[in-house]
Design brief:
14 strands; 34% helix; 6-stranded mixed beta sheet; alpha/beta
C-alpha cells in the first residue's frame, strides 16, 4: 500500500514538473510595429529579434497588390544582411505554387508586412485564410513585423487612407488589443483624427508611431520603443478626465 502511494505521489510530482516546464518553454509571441517603410536598420533589428543565425524572413506585399517594384526593392534592401529573404505573394495560381500559404509562412522565422492599402489587404487575407495562418505563426513564436499597413494590421484598428477622399477607420487582426496610428507626425491629418476618434470612442486607446520609430510587444504587452534617430518617437494615446492624453514612450535604443 505504501509503495503504491509513493508511486502515485512520484507520478504527480513528475507531471507537475513537466507541466511547469512546458509552460515556461512556450514560444514568446512577438510583434515589432514601426510607423513607416522598412529600412536597413529595422531589418537588422528584426534579425536580432528572431534570435537565430541567418533567419528565414518573408515579405508580404499584399497591400500593394504584390507590386513587382516593391518586391524588387525588398530583395535589394536585404542584400548584405545575414538573412534569407523570401516573398509570399497572394495573387497566385495552383499550378505555379506547390505549397500552401500555411506551409510557406509557418516555415519562416519572421514575417514582414509591407505598406499600402490596409482595407484591401485585410479582405484578401480573410478570403484566402491567411489571417488564420498568421495567428498560427504568432502563436508559434514567429516574429511578426511591418510598418504603415504592415503595422496597422496587427492591432484592433486605426485610421487608413484605403478609401477614397478621406481617412477612415479600418479593422485589423487584433493580435494587439488596442488601436494604432502609423505616420503619426509625417502626415498632418493623422494625429488630429486619431485624437478625435479616441475621444469619441470610435477607436480604443492605443499606440501612435512616427515613421522612423518602432515598438516591440511580447505576449500582447508593451516592452520597449526604438528609433532610427533622436527625433522620432512613439506614444500611448488615451482619454483621461474627458480629455485626450498623449504619453511619450521613452526610446531606449537608437538602431544602427
Amino acid at each position: 500500500m505504501k509503495r503504491t502511494c509513493f508511486v502515485a505521489l512520484l507520478a504527480i510530482i513528475c507531471f507537475s514538473g513537466f507541466a511547469q516546464t512546458s509552460k515556461n518553454t512556450a514560444p514568446t509571441r512577438t510583434i515589432f510595429a514601426y510607423g513607416g517603410n522598412y529600412t536597413n536598420q529595422f531589418m537588422r533589428y528584426v534579425i536580432a529579434l528572431t534570435k537565430k543565425e541567418n533567419p528565414k524572413i518573408c515579405f508580404m506585399p499584399t497591400a500593394t497588390g504584390d507590386n513587382a517594384n516593391y518586391i524588387a526593392a525588398w530583395y535589394a534592401a536585404c542584400e548584405g544582411l545575414p538573412m534569407r529573404p523570401y516573398v509570399q505573394r497572394v495573387y497566385v495560381a495552383s499550378y505555379t505554387d506547390k505549397k500552401t500559404f500555411e506551409e510557406n509562412l509557418l516555415g519562416m522565422d519572421a514575417i514582414v508586412v509591407g505598406g499600402g492599402n490596409t482595407l484591401n489587404m485585410m479582405a484578401i487575407w480573410k478570403a484566402q485564410g491567411i489571417d488564420t495562418v498568421l495567428r498560427k505563426a504568432y502563436n508559434k513564436g514567429i516574429v511578426l513585423t511591418g510598418g504603415s499597413a504592415g503595422s496597422l494590421c496587427w492591432f484592433q484598428g486605426g485610421t487608413t487612407d484605403s478609401r477614397p477622399k478621406d481617412l477612415s477607420i479600418v479593422q485589423g487582426l487584433a493580435f494587439i488589443p488596442t488601436s494604432h496610428c502609423p505616420h503619426y507626425h509625417s502626415e498632418p491629418l493623422r494625429k488630429p483624427l486619431y485624437f478625435e476618434n479616441i475621444l469619441k470612442g470610435k477607436l480604443s486607446p492605443g499606440y501612435a508611431i512616427d515613421d522612423l520609430a518602432g515598438i516591440v510587444f511580447e505576449n500582447e504587452k508593451y516592452i520597449k520603443s526604438v528609433a532610427i534617430d533622436d527625433k522620432s518617437n512613439t506614444y500611448y494615446v488615451s482619454v483621461i478626465d474627458g480629455k485626450v492624453d498623449e504619453k511619450l514612450l521613452p526610446v531606449t535604443e537608437i538602431l544602427k
